[in-house]
Amino acid sequence: MTSLLDRFLTYVKIDTQADAHSTQYPSTEKQLTLCKLLKEEFEQVGLTDVQINEYGIVTGTIPATPGCAAPAIAFFAHVDTSPEFTSVNVQPQVRTNYDGKDITLKEGRVLKVSECPELKGQTGKTIITTDGTTLLGADDKAGIAIVMTAAERLLNSTDFPHGPVKVCFTCDEEIGHGTDHIDLAALDCICGYTLDGDGAGKIDTETFSADMAEVRITGINIHPSIGKGKMVNAIRYLSKFISRLPRESDAPEVTDERQGFMHPYSMSGSVAEAVVEIILRDFETEQLKVYAEKLHEIAKELKEEEPRLEIEIKIIEQYRNMREGLKKEPRALEKAIAASRAAGQSAELSIIRGGTDGSVLTEKGLPTPNLSSGQHIPHSPLEWASLEEMEQAVDVVLQLAKLWGEEVN
Ligand SMILES: [Zn+2]
């Protein structure tokens, strides 16, 4: 069998960076290089129904143990890496018997224990870092290596009976399109698990609920030499609009834990028209309406000040807190906790100030909590992964197959 480490090192060296500005799916052709390799590997290790669809999504099945009538479950991980830092020529550095000290990388970058206390717990263990010039891509190639390794072990084990276990590797998660082309009807599972969380032993059971607001202000453009009394400068009013958003509260700079925010993150414009995109985030979906209402109030004030303005506010739904959807199949979470404990972990329930593929899948009707995969400091040249934590995650996947194998469909 190929080792977990060898798999991981093979995957991270393949550049699969996503591109938010692309109009294709997957957003970058290079993701398909890894997708095709994973399809071949599925066939080599012996999964059945192996497929790669026209969008690059790779699926396969570990058939049920003969006579086992347990329901099907699915495991997900994503092949793409973040556009936030380069992934060209990743040179993973395997550090066995890590000494627990700061690690100096190229380009003057230092992975400091003081800034990443989880490193302390890795003393004597094997960690994998970058060389300092790229991201690592453990987000989410750790997840891919974990699921592939668990699939191979499950296929070669007769230790316990299990139901059908489906595996699905997705593209473009980092740009919010990880679930666009997953055929849930074809997967036909009772629940799923994404292997895309940080550290070890955590189970993400809540995510933000998220909307995006696009505020478009239309002014009146005229040559500035004759602008008196005629010009309505959209840029000026957009600036006013943004300055009236809350800043001492409800902003990412001043909130943490369960507090939500409204966050202007992109703007463009000219005298005639200016647009700002504002993301709205909270753990309570209702709060998103309050935020949208606030935007309408600001628009109303500005319209009163300058009736010739046009202000259009478009709210685009992005994803929802998975908490509600997980209630549909409480065993999804119960078994994640039990599997985590059986694998010798603490099973810490956590919330993420963001979304996962699982939040979208849960909303679409497939309850899908997110599990730890040994990755740390994602999207950065300081990214690293723990081999021991990845091994533990393989064990969690196997324990889940075992626990679900005790259920009757
Ligand atoms: Zn990820």
SSE layout and pairings?
Layout: H1 4-12, H2 31-45, E1 48-52, E2 58-62, E3 73-78, E4 93-95, E5 103-104, E6 110-111, E7 127-129, H3 138-155, E8 165-170, H4 184-187, E9 191-198, E10 202-207, E11 209-218, H5 234-243, E12 261-269, E13 273-282, H6 285-305, E14 310-319, H7 322-326, H8 331-342, E15 348-352, H9 357-363, E16 370-376, E17 384-386, H10 387-405
Parallel strand pairs: 3-8, 3-9, 9-16, 10-15
Antiparallel strand pairs: 1-2, 2-8, 4-7, 5-6, 7-17, 10-16, 11-13, 11-14, 12-13, 16-17
Helix pairs in contact: 1-3, 3-10, 8-10
Describe the structure.
The protein has two domains: 4-207 and 321-405, Zn peptidases (Aminopeptidase, 3-Layer(aba) Sandwich); 209-319, 2-Layer Sandwich (Alpha-Beta Plaits), CATH 3.30.70. The chain is globular. Strands 1, 2, 3, 4, 7, 8, 9, 10, 15, 16 and 17 form an eleven-stranded mixed beta sheet that branches. The protein has a four-stranded antiparallel beta sheet with strand order 12-13-11-14. A two-stranded antiparallel sheet has the order 5-6. With 409 residues, the protein is of the alpha+beta class. The model has no long low-confidence stretch (mean pLDDT 96). It has ten helices and 17 strands. Strand 5 (103-104) and strand 6 (110-111) form a beta hairpin. 46% of the residues are buried. Helix 3 (138-155) crosses helix 10 (387-405) and helix 8 crosses helix 10 (387-405). It binds zinc ion. Residues 78, 139-140, 173, 196 line the site of zinc ion (ZN).
